[in-house]
Write the structure tokens for this entry.
Amino acid sequence: MASKFIKHIIFSYYIDGMEEKYFQVNSSGRHFLYKETTLFLPSGNKITASLGGPTKMCIVITIQPNKPVAYIDRVDYDSQCSLNGLHKRQNGTFDLVRTALWIVHTRFPHITVFTLKDDSHINCEEDSKRYKLNLAYDYILKYGETWYQNKFHATLLDNYYEDFKDSIKCITEPLENIDYLISRGADYLESYRTTYIDSSSPHDFFKKLREQYGDQYCHQVCNWISKYMILLGVKLFYDSWFISVDEVIEPPNYTILPKKKKNIYGGTRRRRRMSIRRRKQDEYDEYDNFSGSIVGVYGDF
């Protein structure tokens, strides 16, 4: 049964070299708003596929009609990322990304690869950006692979991938002497000396920290986890990851429904043109600043 929030809000709109199409998307028990924007440029058309809710687009994928590579600009977490709410601790971000990849795959069959920068820093608290945790490093310490690897089988080119795999072997190997690491600048470990000495490996050390600090774990490690992983020699190659279209799977209960046109902008043609241009520039500026990153909340991962 369709949500009462998604009736009669789907449409398309064209003005001065830009076309926007909107669709209702149902996926995994969630209701999303999908926006497809085409900029008609002399150098070639540029398409952005965005998915989210009525007030916030939470994933943007950039597409060029003549190229087989799509770029995941940014993934964001917010309770308004779907029409019926996107709640943490319920795989909300996973459902959002999985649905967006499937939409692009089906609407643009020439796409064979999704590229991304895996440099995601997620918020420790839902309403605060003060504490941020490197998601890739935390996932490597917990699962031996990044979030994108774990959820979407992301990979690297062969030479990078082998270097990456070799560099993370240390995660399950015996810990280095804590005083030696402190002498190399890891003085942040002093506060966790007892736990560190009682641990058998970096994986075991962070597992104990999760158990010890519970909901405060993110706050405890967010300021030094990246320094620690770099000190260990982990090579993330954050700007070289990609997801093959062969790994993109249709979400459960997926439907996409285009509906009737409707002018949402209102006002005169000149006022609409200025409003749209200003809004689009603001959107591109925002995504350029956070290219490829997941901006989420720790509890959702």
In short: Residues 1-9, 261-291 have pLDDT under 50 and may be disordered.
